Amino acid sequence: MEIRSIRGMNDILPEDSILWKQVRDTMHYVLGSYGFREILIPVLEETRLFQRGIGETTDIVEKEMYTFEDKSGQSLTLRPEATASIVRAYVQHHLYASGKVEKLYFWGPMFRYERPQKGRYRQFYQIDVEAFGSNDPTLDTDIIASLYDFLTTLNVPGVTIEINSLGCPNCRPAYHKALKAYFSDKIDKLCPDCKSRLVRNPLRILDCKVETCHELALKAPNIHEFLCDTCKNHFQGVQSYLEDLHIPTRLNPMMVRGLDYYVQTTFEAVSENLGAQNAVAGGGRYDGLVKQLGGPDIPGIGYAMGMERLIMILQDIRKEPLSWPCDLFIATLGDKARRYGITLASKIRKEGKVCEFSYEPKSLKALMKLANRLNARFTAIIGEDELQRKEIVLRNMATREQTTLPVDDTLTEKITGLLDG
RNA sequence: GUGGGUGUGGCUCAGUUGGUUAGAGCACUGGGUUGUGGCCCCAGAGGUCAAGGGUUCGAGUCCCUUCACUCACCCCA
């Protein structure tokens, strides 16, 4: 019986993984330029980390976590997101003691038990970016800029950064109250989901896609009329700095993030060509989270980017698929040639070239086909005839030009020279 | 959790009102070219038609059940 991968968990095969590699290379390069440093965190955490960090009443915690008991009876959870873990690590290792703004990034799989669809899987990969230790709008700006930079470096088309401010524990309660008052009158026009949202988290009604709810939401009280002076000034700072950097943003007062820890600045990067799941990245400020998870009262801000969604966009705009590189294919005919060829391959690789080898004995015609399939730029042909004459043939696969090279001490050097030339 | 769509060689799909040996293109292997790839020509290999049950003289085709994939809702990256 054939064993298949389980639902919502996909293999990423080499023809696709080359693009993933390109994205990760760009990640290291762009985030590195902002001074972000990489952190690696475990896949498993204590369940209560997410309960406390993400919020007990969020969908993620209520119904989407992979939670189980280990052999000691402890409740563990496969991480559904990275922020809680990174905050935990930040607190656990006292990274706040360094006296600087700590800027961290991470790349890895996350797990949520949901029905899979386009751009949403049970094991999915996120790039996660977090910064701790400042509430200054310049940090919000740098964080958003790093996201924008990253996407534009990858040539992602049609990116908009939507931003909003959710206020803080000082001003949000008044807004909650106003929203509740507004929607309570119209409770019979709300969808069933929004009726329960009204009690639990009225902010979420603003995000509802049901048309009647959406229409009501358009006329609902605006968060920006309720922001306290601190939050108002903070948000104005962020907006004006982003303008200075020429980052295209769109204010979206209806944007509400789905995790409980967000305060003040929130943002999303949206792309047109994604279908229903159109957010490539999302994040915001979480000034109370470090304290809530047992650390000092240190502010933080960050975002998460969906790798699969990003890859989807990049595949859409790419005409020809990327392929893994191959500088040289060594085609050998006969045992003596194979013996010589395998050591030559080793020497070429030490020069930093990608070199493939004819492991299976085949006809030259078959070997040439193989070279073609490997996408080899050059093929070295080593046969009994050539070896007897102490030479090999180097063929440029694109131009079909062939050069005969003598087998001597300078051979490796000559080959790499031709590969570069 | 709810709804829609789809399951036929490795891949993309045809397959007529049910009718006897289930097809094509691409990919693969070999040959045409005894040691030279992409194009062309020829040949070959590869299928319990998702699984199980039912109707029928006869089922890839009709009915039922299950499973898988997929899109959307919900939610999120």
Labels describing this entry:
single chain, 421 residues, alpha+beta, BirA Bifunctional Protein, domain 2, Rossmann fold, 2 domains, eight-stranded mixed beta sheet, five-stranded mixed beta sheet, 15 helices, 16 strands, 39% helix, 21% strand, RNA-binding
Description:
The chain is built from 15 helices and 16 strands. 33% of the residues are buried. Helix content is 39%, strand content 21%. The mean pLDDT is 92. The protein has 2 domains: 14-171 and 227-317, BirA Bifunctional Protein, domain 2, CATH 3.30.930; 328-420, Rossmann fold (3-Layer(aba) Sandwich), CATH 3.40.50.800. It has helices at 14-33, 47-54, 59-63, 83-92, 137-153, 172-185, 192-200, 211-218, 229-244, 289-292, 307-317, 335-350, 364-373, 384-388, 411-420, and strands at residues 37-38, 44-46, 66-69, 75-78, 102-111, 123-132, 160-165, 249-251, 263-270, 279-285, 300-306, 328-332, 355-357, 378-382, 391-396, 402-406. Helix 1 (14-33) packs antiparallel against helix 5 (137-153), helix 2 (47-54) packs across helix 4 and helix 5 runs parallel beside helix 9. With 421 residues, the protein is of the alpha+beta class. An 8-stranded mixed β-sheet has the order 1-5-6-11-10-9-7-8. A 5-stranded mixed β-sheet has the order 13-12-14-15-16, with helices on both faces. It is elongated, with a radius of gyration of 28 Å. It binds one RNA strand of 77 nucleotides through helix 3, strand 6, strand 10, strand 11 and helix 11.
